[in-house]
């Protein structure tokens, strides 16, 4: 079982923002919302899991890795076990849709045959096989986010981290994206979604970590 | 193997993905390398000319009268054994007189009973050891048994030594300066490219790419850019030589066009600059 565990984590930026004494677990297969206003610490928590930021106090456990003991060289290995979806999609804009998904498989040293099969499977799952040769800039926001989700799922992660994934999308497209996350979760992948969209949280009856001024209040 | 293939193929694709940056890198490399090639061409010609002039300076070692043929041969061998002596050509008394008569058309043989001119060795030395070494060498010749007097153009030799070493230093200084300019131009270019790709690189890191996998394609790209610019600059130099007929002004033009070295310098310069710039950033 691969879990995420925050043990008395305090992580502060130089401007005083961040999170304080956070304690929580996310178990494999769970769907968790991270909720709170801007600057409450949602993105900080995602950064701590991705280990782009390290706690000032306490420790973060992600699967077999611990923020206190992880070596710099192990960080890419940790990130390969996670899937990331961002508000601004963060697709590699110098290559086409197919290459964007294949990239995460190539960096793990998979064989070309497997990469091709897996990439086509992921494209089919998000319903964009026909757009495989297009550049990200030629896609709509919703399509770009679907490709980002396909890329996040390509390496079969145990958790998908989503930072305001519907923040740049209209309500209809957002609903489609959320349905995709629901399907992903139903297959056994945990989802941690940061959002300040109250309606979204209310629509689904998933566990919610409510953040305010860097503290988990519920 | 898959990773190595990935790095090489990403590097090659990178040449076409960021066409403008590739063009800028190759263009700046091409420009500076062409300048470097022309500079080397000119400096090589200057140094060759200086070398030629120095080679023309000979030392005359006059022999005592009455030396036998055997003694002269032994003396010649002793002179040739001295370090930095290239040649020692014997001029007999008769040869000296003949030369004298060629210079002064009057027939002096009628006026004098005996040939007063001494036999000599015309000695050529390598003048790469500075003035002090040349003086030591001449002193060695003077001390040899059978040598009466040594004559040489001390002032000319000193001036030649001074100017050629000063010229060599200046040429090296300019060459190093040009290399630094090339390095600087490439550095700025790579920094601009990296700034433009900062978000791309960050995304690659977030999805689990190791730093070596991000850096690798940049290195491969720099090697290919260096190769293209190196070959291009050679081609450009050949064109310049033929269009402006530089062959007549710079006769030693073949000497510095070692194509493999020129391309190698280009590759090393491109790779080294890229290596340093990327290690600072990623």
Write the layout of secondary structure elements.
The complex is a heterodimer of chains A (218) and B (282).
Chain A: E1 4-12, E2 18-26, E3 31-35, H1 42-50, E4 57-62, E5 65-66, H2 75-79, E6 82-85, H3 97-106, H4 112-125, H5 141-154, E7 159-163, H6 171-186, E8 190-195, H7 198-203, E9 207-212, E10 215-216
Parallel strand pairs in A: 3-8, 3-9, 6-7, 7-8
Antiparallel strand pairs in A: 1-2, 1-4, 4-5, 9-10
Helix pairs in contact in A: 3-4, 3-5, 4-5, 5-6
Chain B: H1 2-17, H2 19-55, E1 58-63, H3 69-81, E2 85-91, H4 93-103, E3 120-125, H5 130-143, E4 147-151, H6 154-196, H7 198-206, H8 211-243, H9 246-249, H10 259-281
Antiparallel strand pairs in B: 1-3, 1-4, 2-3
Helix pairs in contact in B: 1-8, 2-6, 2-8, 6-10, 8-10
Note down, in words, how this protein is organized.
The complex is a heterodimer of chains A (218) and B (282). In chain A, helix 3 runs parallel beside helix 5 and helix 4 (112-125) packs across helix 5. Chain A contains 7 helices and 10 strands. Chain A has 2 domains: 1-81 and 157-218, Rossmann fold; 95-156, no CATH class. In chain A, the strands form 2 sheets. A 6-stranded mixed sheet of chain A has the order 6-7-8-3-9-10, with helices on both faces. A 4-stranded antiparallel sheet of chain A has the order 2-1-4-5, with helices on one face. The model of chain A has no long low-confidence stretch (mean pLDDT 94). Chain A has 218 residues and is an alpha/beta fold. Chain B is an alpha+beta fold. Chain B folds into 2 domains: 2-52 and 162-281, no CATH class; 58-152, Alpha-Beta Plaits. Helix content of chain B is 72%, strand content 9%. Chain B contains 10 helices and 4 strands. Chain B has helices at 2-17, 19-55, 69-81, 93-103, 130-143, 154-196, 198-206, 211-243, 246-249, 259-281; strands at 58-63, 85-91, 120-125, 147-151. Chain B is elongated and about 105 Å long. Classes of the chains: A alpha/beta (218), B alpha+beta (282). At the A-B interface, helix 2 and helix 3 of A face helix 1 and helix 7 of B.
């Amino acid at each position: 079982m691969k879990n995420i565990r925050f043990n008395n984590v305090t992580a502060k930026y130089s401007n005083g923002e961040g999170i304080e004494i956070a304690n929580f677990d996310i178990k494999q297969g769970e769907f968790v919302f991270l909720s709170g206003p801007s600057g409450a610490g949602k993105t900080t928590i995602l950064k701590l899991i991705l280990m782009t930021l390290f706690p000032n106090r306490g420790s973060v456990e992600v699967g077999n890795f611990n923020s206190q003991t992880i070596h710099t060289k192990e960080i890419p290995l940790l990130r390969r076990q996670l899937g990331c979806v961002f508000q601004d999609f963060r697709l590699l804009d110098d290559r086409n849709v197919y290459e964007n998904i294949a990239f995460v498989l190539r960096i793990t040293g998979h064989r070309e045959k497997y990469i091709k099969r897996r990439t086509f499977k992921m494209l089919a799952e998000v319903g964009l096989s026909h757009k495989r040769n297009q550049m990200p800039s030629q896609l709509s926001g919703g399509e770009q986010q679907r490709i980002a989700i396909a890329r996040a799922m390509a390496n079969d992660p145990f958790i998908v981290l989503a930072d305001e994934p519907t923040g740049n999308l209209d309500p209809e497209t957002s609903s489609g994206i959320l349905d995709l996350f629901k399907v992903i979760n139903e297959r056994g992948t945990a989802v941690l979604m940061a959002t300040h969209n109250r309606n979204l949280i209310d629509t689904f009856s998933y566990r919610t970590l409510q953040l305010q001024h860097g503290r988990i209040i519920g | 193997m898959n990773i190595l293939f990935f790095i090489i193929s990403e590097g090659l694709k990178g040449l076409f993905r960021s066409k403008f940056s590739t063009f800028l890198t190759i263009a700046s490399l091409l420009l500076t390398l062409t300048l470097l090639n022309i500079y080397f061409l000119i400096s090589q010609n200057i140094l060759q000319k200086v070398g030629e002039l120095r080679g023309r300076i000979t030392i005359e070692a006059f022999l005592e009268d009455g030396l036998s043929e055997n003694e002269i041969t032994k003396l010649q061998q002793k002179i040739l054994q001295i370090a930095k002596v290239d040649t020692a050509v014997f001029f007999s008394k008769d040869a000296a007189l003949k030369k004298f008569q060629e210079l002064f058309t009057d027939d002096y043989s009628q006026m004098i009973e005996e040939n007063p001119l001494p036999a000599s060795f015309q000695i050529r030395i390598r003048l790469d050891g500075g003035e002090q070494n040349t003086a030591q060498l001449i002193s060695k010749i003077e001390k040899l048994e059978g040598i009466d007097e040594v004559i040489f153009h001390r002032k000319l030799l000193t001036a030649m030594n001074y100017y050629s070493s000063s010229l060599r230093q200046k040429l090296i200084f300019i060459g190093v300066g040009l290399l630094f300019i090339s390095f600087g131009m490439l550095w700025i270019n790579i920094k601009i490219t990296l700034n433009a790709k900062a978000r791309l690189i960050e995304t690659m890191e977030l999805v689990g790419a190791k730093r070596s996998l991000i850096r690798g394609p940049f290195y491969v790209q720099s090697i290919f850019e260096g190769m293209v610019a190196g070959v291009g600059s050679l081609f450009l130099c050949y064109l310049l030589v033929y269009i402006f007929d530089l062959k007549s002004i710079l006769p030693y033009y073949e000497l510095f066009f070692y194509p493999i070295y020129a391309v190698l310098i280009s590759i090393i310069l491109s790779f080294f600059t890229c290596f340093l710039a990327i290690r600072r950033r990623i």
